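Forwarding these from the shared drive since the link keeps breaking.
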Amino acid sequence: MLPGDFQLQKYPRKKLALFGVLSIVGVFILGGTVLALVFVISSWLGRPVVFGFNDGPTQPIAFPHTVHVQDLELDCTFCHRNVTLGAAATIPAVGLCMTCHKTIGDGLPEVEKLRTVFEEGQPIDWIRVHRVPDHVQFAHEPHVRFFSERGGISPSATCSTCHGDVGSMVVVEQVRSLKMGDCVDCHRDNGAPTDCTTCHY
């Protein structure tokens, strides 16, 4: 045996440094891929479990449904005026909020934010809470009409079928998955159409 036959090859420092950088980048890519897969799979099965998506988002102006619904007994349709008329429930414009808050709420920080936004002529950039997948067509009006006529209940009581008891939420959060299985089960339970073209058109 000749000396040096079994010695490990020494790599230049540049190659070692490059290998180290590529290893670190690879770990970050792998971690990002795993995180993305967890997000996508959990979103598909229900609500996303990462990034705090199970909690309601912090809105630009805190809107206490508890005060407006429980204390003042406002109906959902007072603010969400289009829910019995069209596809979207609509979020109230700043002007509608100001019909009351021009005179009510002096000194309350969130009301003062609202007044500032109104004076500046700006909209409120509310963060969406409830959402069905983009390839699904969902119209509020026929759902509200169906449950109101069938059960003889108010539109507000109908809203809680999908949105939960929003009136008791300090921060609104999504309580149902609003995925296909959830919708199809509800349609089957209530004798509504389950044909694909009902929601995908």
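-- next protein --
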Amino acid sequence: MTLDIPHIDQLTDEILNGTRDFPQFNQPEHAGVCSAGAHLVGALIVCNLARESLASGDHVRECQAAPTNWQIDEEQERQVRSWAEAKGIWVPKAEEWLSANYGSMLAQGAESKVYARTGDTHVVKLRTSIYATLGRALEAIALHNYLFPETVMRVLGFTRDADGLFRVILTQPYIVCMRLATQDEIDTMVSKKGFCRCDSTSNVNYISHRLCLEDMHPANVFVEEATRQPICIDCIVKFKR
């Protein structure tokens, strides 16, 4: 697969101005795509092209089998890095860059390292993929923005951390936490968005007709000091496939 940067830029502009859609998102979800910014849109385009190239290219002809998720993920990471370097949004040694420009690391979880200075209105995160492929990790950012616009994620760039993990660099509003939400408050919040509790043995907490939510526990849902309402700062969002 050879990247055509001007063509990707054109597709990005068409998606942002509403004249083209991603096939995997419905119209309301597209608001979440666009609110993450042009860097997310471009990376999603590259991921879709990488998946399509694998599905129709030499891999299938030689192996007579569909590419596996790890093969798709590897190709998507490779192509997104090439595209990000061409666009000037690949950040080497991002941890040093973030500490110098955005303050020290405040917190670290399984998915993100969080940086901010005292008094900043936003935090910056190094978000790694805990999804099957990079494309699905990027979809999750768009779906988070659709479901939880009060903690919208905007993509700044891409990197590999000191451990070699591919990470998305993004910003989110800084939420002043009064306390952690209770499970009942989380149930009520997501039910208003069309989700119900999932009682299966999987890791899925809630389902709607299109989406699954995982990792929806109190440490990821704060009751905001200003509004006294529960706000999701992070969770795992997936399409039902």
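The chain has a mean pLDDT of 91. Residues 5-173 form one domain.

- D.
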